[in-house]
Write a structure and sequence with these properties.
heterodimer, A: mainly alpha, 65% helix, globular, B: 4 helices, rod-shaped
């Protein structure tokens, strides 16, 4: 396979590479050490109104996920219409969408649910892969301290929204609710209710637990990979005294593991919806 | 009082180590099986290598998740509680 790069590709790759090199140099010059005290801590802000759990937000998750959604929408709007002879951007999108469409068509047994499931799975995939790729790029990091919050530039990777369990749990519960809504629509309410009492009514608690366990394993898988990857990068680079490794590890955990986990999340969403419908 | 805190610390470290160590057995065996079967399939049909590699990575990512649960639990024991 021969890869030919255009000028734009070279500029993009150059920016990415120089970002990594700048990070490495900044780390060496400033004698940077990761804050192992603030490891796994989150910047959480209490809103002025309301009280309790529902008035506390993680600002980084909110801002970064809004920014990602804005990027996706702008990208979608930037394609005015699909040409007969595809350009580079268009053929990339067509490849991705075709792959997912074939996958959905093979998994979903009922024809009228193929398209909605395809939209959901592809949207999930694009959002998750973008946010995982952010974890591979050096940028702003926030570490909460005793008085306020500390921002560091070019010393850690960007905050990816999927390293917050709230994002993943939201997406997983959303898949669960949608799959059951589809099942009700496909089979009718009573038939859907009856599937919980099969093969006989004694199995009802087990069926219920197996449904509730789906979003838990679905969300924790992604969370564990992204969060564990981030923490492992910090710990391993602490062990080797910050010699070049952090950027390499971000690349491995962000790009390789991140892409696989985004695909796994989308494929499992399709499989869950398909298993409930039939 | 100091003894009590020391005992709590001791329990945390032992618990996190056990959680991660025992939790890594299952995914290790599982990924070994996945890899072995994929190798066997590849040696039988070398022309399917591209598809098999993607499927193998996908299956490995799913198998790995139980190990990651124990990683999350270990981090929770060490850092959160």
């Amino acid at each position: 396979m021969k890869v030919s790069l255009t000028k734009g590709d070279k500029i993009f790759l150059g920016c990415l590479g120089s970002g990594y090199i700048i990070t490495f140099i900044v780390m060496q010059i400033t004698d940077h050490t990761f804050d192992l005290e603030g490891l796994g801590q989150r910047w959480i802000v209490q809103l002025p109104f309301g009280s309790g759990l529902f008035s506390r937000v993680n600002p980084m998750t909110l801002f970064v996920s809004w920014a990602l959604m804005a990027i996706l929408i702008i990208f979608a709007l930037s394609i005015k219409k699909f040409e007969r002879i595809p350009g580079k951007k268009q053929s990339l999108i067509e490849m991705l969408l075709e792959y997912f469409y074939e996958l959905t068509k093979d998994t979903i047994p009922k024809k009228e649910f193929v398209k909605p499931t395809f939209y959901i799975a592809t949207t999930l995939f694009l959002f998750i892969i973008l946010s995982n790729l952010l974890g591979a790029i050096p940028g702003i990091d926030t570490v909460p301290t005793e008085n306020g919050v500390k921002f560091t530039l070019f010393q850690s990777s960007w905050y990816s929204p999927t390293s917050d369990l709230n994002t993943n749990a939201t997406l997983a519960v959303f898949v669960l609710i949608i799959s059951h809504a589809f099942a009700i629509k496909a089979k009718g309410f009573l038939t859907w209710l009856k599937t919980f009492f099969e093969p006989n009514p004694i199995m009802f608690p087990i069926n219920l637990i197996s449904e509730v366990a789906k979003p838990i394993s679905h969300s924790l898988r992604l969370f564990g990979n992204v969060m564990g990857g981030g923490i492992l990068a910090i710990i391993i680079s602490y062990l080797v005294k910050y010699f070049l490794l952090p950027t390499f590890l971000w690349g491995f955990f962000g790009i390789f593991i991140g892409a696989i986990q985004a695909l796994v999340f989308a494929v499992l969403a399709i499989a869950y919806i398909g298993s409930v419908i039939e | 009082m100091e003894l009590a805190e020391a005992l709590v610390q001791l329990g945390k470290f032992i618990g996190a180590g056990l959680a991660m160590g025992i939790g890594a057995i299952g995914p290790g065996l599982g990924e070994g099986h996945v890899g072995a079967s994929a190798m066997e399939a590849m040696s039988r049909q070398p022309e399917m290598m591209g598809t098999l590699t993607t499927r193998m990575l996908l299956a490995m990512a799913v198998t790995e998740s139980t190990g990651l649960y124990s990683l999350v639990i270990a981090f929770m024991i060490l850092l959160v509680a």
